[in-house]
Write a structure and sequence with these properties.
Elements: H1 13-34, H2 40-50, H3 60-83
Length: 84
């Protein structure tokens, strides 16, 4: 069993939020790829339950908007990648 660290890194809140958004996008995309019948809101709910995140910490409405922004960015990236 790994030894518990005696130090902690103070990560800025903005960086933690961005990381959580990236994890959520990857998780939801994976679920929707494997199970296309699962909606975005339901997949976000599964993500939140899996990682014990509550609505106060990460509102579903906000997460849905973030997911759609990330998806649009990914689609744009894929389009530009094909054109180069």
């Amino acid at each position: 069993m790994p030894r518990e660290k005696e130090y902690y890194i103070n990560i800025p809140k903005a960086l933690r939020a961005q990381t959580l958004d990236n994890w959520m996008f990857a998780f939801v995309t994976g679920i929707r790829t494997a199970l296309p019948s699962v909606g975005i809101v339901n997949a976000i709910g599964i993500f939140m339950k899996k990682f014990n995140i509550n609505e106060d910490e990460y509102p579903i409405d906000s997460a849905t908007v973030t997911y759609n922004k990330c998806l649009n960015n990914w689609i744009e990236y894929e389009k530009n990648k094909e054109n180069t």
